[in-house]
């Protein structure tokens, strides 16, 4: 029998969501879900009240749709800076409460109280202002998950600047693309970090990227690895900023002022910057962490993630908006052994432990032993970013945690600012299930005619807006409308295939576009194909995601050689190296396959889905629009012969 979580009286009576259910007079999570979308303004106002979030200037209306569903205005007339709710109030209420605890791979532990965190933020804020950085400027954060990342994020938000988080594994080309698109004026980075005992340089990567980014005026470098080397032009050290006299003033911002440009891959290959605002991102992330993950003051939230993915900012703001402690880990969670993750949870008394299916698959495969650590502090497990397999899910929930805690497996994305789908600890949760729509989210699965669909695979959509919905794609409004609103007028189309089964279980079945999901990190085929195209051996290429037991999806690259290209046995390795250097090591192709031709439409569009179907020996679907359908069978036969 498949595993399912059954809530205990503690969760039914004492959890944050149980409190919200009582406020609404709802007898179940499903009843609260339904009522939360009957009047979205009333619901989100109740979240403001329930979580005791104070606006500097009260709003006059929760949501205004007068410009259309595509352009909602939330908390109209309200004034709030996210720092007020997530940091300042706790520095006043619980100054000695632990705000951040950080463990490095070598076991070094650092921590900050709310008072200490506020002081460091005030000093960095003063240092940035003194160097000409202020409201409306874009500031990139290219940092590992260390306390400085938290301080920098708050400092940027507190001066009304826009934070642009970057994945710490990005190569120079990927960094430059995002810095250029955002018009970044300053970057906060580190000289490097240590993972699996090896040093990974970051500052040299950034310096190379900035050779094509003349608008960047300031680079602030945190030196973890060595004493500061001679500074390059426009560089200052983090230590210099911390030595500045603290500036107590948090800039007044409106509810709709931009907080965050969160970059995600798109089908065109050019990254798109999702625009998030102070009030919208605050309300969604605070509600996510409160109601899904049950964080309160005195509880510790730990998610193994990166600053450059949406879970980085969500973890920081969401945890602190609820007065909780944020535990950060910098390094590989299976070093020196597969017991490291569990020992981390015991050492820091973690209440909510966020993991990826890829990580759990790795730990399960590499160790026959169950954890020996005391995991009694853990009351919620979190997961997002990729589908589960039942064996790994049930090993974690049933074998490791003895059915004692729920797995809050939620699904959303960068553009969502949190989850579309989310189970809650007060309801039965079936193995691998996403529960149902997140609170306040009018989510549905529809067929090609936008009719609700049950028992069949359809498109995941949202029928009403929500506070953290990206307001636009930075510098590209047409792309925003095309990406999310053009398929079903008046409905947000997220780009995921989904299923609501006969028993009401919700499941995500993969992307309905070509974007790949590699160990929870999204990347567009075109971003990798543009790198392959530079190689003198490559005439054209197609990149697809293929199911992988550890990564969820692995990158496979197929290329047609140029007429004068010779295959001397080095092309595959060279192409992998190019992708690792220009996009990042996690995205290097697992397979590089030389083919005679790629299937295309008559308008010369490469049929990536047909290529993927050939790899999986599956039905490629309708090929009536293909110029050369025989290419699919050729690739199918070629893949079968691969060693």
Description:
There is one protein chain. Helix content is 31%, strand content 24%. It has 643 residues and is α/β, with parallel strands linked by helices. Among the domains are: 333-405, Rossmann fold; 516-640, 2-Layer Sandwich (GMP Synthetase, Chain A, domain 3). The strands form ten sheets. The protein has a seven-stranded mixed β-sheet with strand order 5-4-16-15-17-18-19. A five-stranded parallel β-sheet has the order 7-6-8-11-12. The protein has a four-stranded antiparallel β-sheet with strand order 23-24-25-26, with no helix packed on it. Strand 20 (411-413) and strand 21 form a beta hairpin. The two termini are 37 Å apart.
Descriptive terms for the model:
643 residues; alpha/beta; Rossmann fold; GMP Synthetase, Chain A, domain 3; 31% helix; globular; acetylation; EC 6.2.1.1; acetate-CoA ligase activity; acetate--CoA ligase
In short:
This protein has 643 residues and is of the alpha/beta class. The protein has 20 helices and 31 strands. The longest helix has 17 residues, at 114-130.
Write the layout of secondary structure elements.
Layout (H helix, E strand, L loop, with lengths): L3 E2 L3 H6 L1 H9 L4 H8 L3 H11 L10 E4 L8 E4 L5 H12 L4 E7 L4 E5 H17 L7 E5 L4 H12 L3 E4 L6 H11 L1 E7 L1 E4 L2 E4 L1 H7 L8 E5 L12 E3 H5 L15 E7 L7 E6 H15 L7 E4 L7 H11 L3 E6 L9 H8 L4 E3 L2 H10 L13 E4 L6 H11 L6 E3 L1 E3 L4 E4 L7 E2 L12 E4 L10 E6 L14 H8 L7 E9 L5 E6 L4 E3 L2 E3 L1 H8 L5 E11 L3 E10 L9 H12 L8 E4 L13 H8 L14 H11 L3
Helix pairs in contact: 5-6, 5-12, 6-7, 8-9, 11-12, 14-15, 19-20
């Amino acid at each position: 029998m498949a595993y399912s979580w059954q809530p205990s009286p503690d969760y039914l009576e004492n959890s944050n969501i149980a409190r919200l259910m009582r406020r609404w007079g709802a007898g179940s999570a499903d009843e609260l879900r339904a009522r939360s979308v009957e009047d979205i303004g009333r619901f989100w106002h109740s979240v403001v009240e329930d979580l005791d979030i104070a606006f500097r200037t009260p709003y006059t209306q929760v949501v205004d749709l007068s410009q259309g569903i595509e352009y909602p205005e939330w908390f109209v007339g309200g004034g709030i800076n996210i720092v007020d709710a997530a940091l300042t109030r706790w520095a006043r209420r619980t100054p000695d409460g632990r705000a951040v605890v950080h463990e490095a791979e070598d076991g070094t532990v650092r921590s900050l109280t709310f008072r200490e965190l506020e002081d460091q933020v005030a000093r960095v804020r003063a240092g940035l202002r003194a160097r000409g950085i202020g409201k409306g400027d874009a500031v990139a954060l290219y940092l590992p998950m260390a306390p400085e990342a938290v301080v920098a994020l708050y400092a940027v938000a507190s001066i009304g600047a826009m934070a642009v988080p970057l994945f710490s594994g990005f190569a120079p080309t990927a960094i430059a693309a995002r810095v250029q698109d955002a018009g970044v004026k300053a970057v906060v980075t580190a000289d490097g970090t240590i993972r699996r005992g090896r040093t990974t340089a970051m500052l040299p990567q950034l310096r190379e990227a900035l050779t094509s980014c003349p608008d960047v005026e300031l680079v602030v470098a945190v030196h973890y690895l060595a004493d500061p080397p001679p500074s390059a032009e426009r560089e200052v050290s983090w230590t210099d900023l911390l030595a500045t006299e603290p500036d107590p003033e948090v800039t007044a911002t409106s509810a709709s002022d931009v907080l965050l440009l969160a970059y995600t891959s798109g089908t065109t290959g050019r990254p798109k910057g999702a625009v998030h605002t102070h009030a919208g991102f605050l309300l969604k992330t605070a509600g996510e962490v409160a109601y899904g993950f049950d964080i309160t003051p005195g509880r510790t939230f730990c998610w193994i993630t990166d600053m450059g993915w949406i879970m980085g900012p969500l973890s920081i703001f969401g945890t602190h908006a609820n007065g909780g402690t944020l535990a950060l880990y910098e390094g590989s969670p299976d070093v020196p052994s597969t017991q490291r993750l569990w020992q981390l949870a015991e050492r820091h008394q973690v209440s909510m432990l966020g993991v990826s299916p890829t990580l759990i698959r790795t730990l399960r495969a590499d160790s026959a032993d169950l954890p020996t650590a005391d995991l009694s502090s853990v009351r919620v497990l979190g997961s997002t970013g990729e589908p589960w397999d039942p064996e790994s899910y049930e090993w974690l929930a049933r074998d490791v945690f003895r059915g004692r805690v729920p797995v809050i497996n939620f699904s959303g994305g960068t553009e969502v600012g949190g989850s579309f789908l989310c189970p809650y600890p007060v309801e039965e949760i079936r193995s691998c299930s996403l529960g149902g729509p997140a609170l306040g989210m009018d989510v549905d699965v529809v067929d090609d005619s936008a009719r609700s669909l049950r028992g069949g695979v359809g498109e995941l959509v949202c029928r009403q807006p929500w506070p953290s919905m990206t307001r636009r794609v930075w510098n590209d409004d047409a792309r925003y409308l095309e990406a999310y609103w053009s398929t079903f007028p008046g409905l947000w189309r997220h780009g995921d295939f989904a299923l609501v089964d006969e028993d009401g279980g919700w499941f995500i079945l993969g992307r309905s576009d070509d974007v790949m999901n590699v160990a929870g990190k999204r990347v567009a085929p075109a971003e990798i194909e543009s790198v392959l195209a530079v190689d003198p051996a490559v005439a054209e290429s197609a990149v697809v995601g293929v199911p992988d037991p550890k990564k969820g999806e692995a990158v496979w690259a197929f290329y047609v050689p140029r007429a004068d290209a010779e295959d001397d046995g080095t092309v595959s390795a060279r192409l992998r190296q190019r992708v690792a250097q220009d996009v990042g090591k996690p995205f290097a192709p697992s397979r590089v396959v030389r083919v005679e031709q790629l299937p295309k439409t008559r308008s010369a569009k490469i049929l990536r889905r047909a290529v993927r179907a050939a790899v999986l020996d599956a039905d490629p679907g309708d090929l009536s629009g293909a110029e050369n359908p025989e290419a699919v069978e050729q690739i199918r036969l070629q893949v079968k012969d691969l060693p």
